[in-house]
Design goal:
Elements lengths: L1 H27 L6 E6 L2 E2 L3 E4 L2 E3 L1 H13 L2 E6 L5 H7 L4 E2 L7 H4 L2 E3 L4 E10 L17 E6 L3 H11 L4 E6 L2 H9 L5 E5 H9 L4 E3 L5 E5 L2 E3 L3 H16 L2 H9 L4
Parallel strand pairs: 1-5, 1-6, 9-10, 9-11
Antiparallel strand pairs: 2-3, 3-4, 6-14, 7-14, 8-11, 8-12, 8-13
Helix pairs in contact: 2-8, 2-9
Amino acid sequence: MKNKKLLVALIAVVAAIVVAVVLYFTLGKNAEKPTLIMATNATFPPYEYYEGEEIVGIDVEIAKAVANKMGYELQVDDMEFESIIPAVQTGKADFGFAGMTVTEDRALLVDFTNTYATGVQVIIVKEGSPITCSDDLFVEGKNYTIGVQLSTTGDLYSTWDLEDEGLATVSRFASGMDAVMALNSGKVDCVIIDNEPAKAYIASNPGLKILETEYVTEDYAAAIKKGNTELLDAFNAALQELIDDGTVGKIIDKYIPAE
């Protein structure tokens, strides 16, 4: 009788182990990872842009690597640039990643992660333009019209430095390409935009050039809802690991080869 009870107990233990193994392989192993939602504006090559129907670029690859290290899947939501911070603030997105520059004004609205790249704002003009360097924009009485993408740092800096001082008129567009098209058609005198997308735009628009003098240098970071220190700390830890092991550098070099 005793041996029979022992056998029954042993069978029960084995059955429990078998059930646990089956559940692991049918549920646990195949269970979907939680998702992190990234808000971006996919008109900013090489940081984020469409390749067919897929959004690719530096920010997308870095975000995927960060999410994977944190144990998440990544969902990329494309939206207007000026909608990114509100999406983060309201919880529609977990973070904004869009070649976004750290500024004092933005830091009042969101928390920024550690920086992962440096951007340079440059000036695009037509060949033969009277604007030959950034100082030309500050000449009193010229009042050039400057094309920018709405809510980008090109918009912010030209507004603060020039429009607010009565030295220029800033014309704002939904995308950098729209601003470049306005330059081609003579609606604006120049475009202020990040150097890397500027290279892509002039490559497809003969007759335009980038001035040698930079307008401003800036740091890029991800934007996270204020007070979400758990996500901020986890994101920073994963990002720093990827910087330290060379992953971030390799991704950037893939899209921006050393000249």
